[in-house]
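Protocol step 4 of 6: structure prediction from sequence.
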Amino acid sequence: VMYNSKEAGGYSFYTYNKTNYRKVWAGKPSFNPSGTKMLYYTERANNEVGSIWVMDTVTKTEKPIPNTIAYNRILQWVNDDIVYILEYDRIIKVNISEYEAETVYTGDTTCRYALRYPYMFVSDLKGSRIYNMEDGSVREYDDSIYDYCAAAISSDSGYKVLLVYNMSKINNAFYHEAVVLDLETGKDCAI
């Protein structure tokens, strides 16, 4: 979902490499559990990069979150004030009441992430791990029978995540296997 706002009788544009681009007024909206705050991406205050803003849906006040540029997706709202977002190769904890952002993990472009607070699953070229974000512990998850994790999807409740693995080690590049992993116990089952 995205929309542009008419400013002074027309749309607002910026130019980059001799090409005109329409500014995104608000995109990728996400509401906290009570619906009182909306997190969204906008380019209205700075051109090419944009930033993340919060709007209070009751008072209609809007304010930017410092040190954020964009986000790929919302990983999880923990409560009405705390949300975890994926920003390219970083996982950021955003406190929308305090207008603060803190990077909690920096990976690379090969990473796959799933989050069910307090647990976070990360799979990259170094392997797969389960992080406990409350106590700082890290457990290795052995998925060495697979080539790589193609997708990691969090469930809506509990601590289970769906992992999709490429199985080209068995000489079939198109074969994938789905695994349900319980982040709390570290136990899994192939589907």
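Step 5 (inspection) to follow. The two ends are 33 Å apart (CA to CA).
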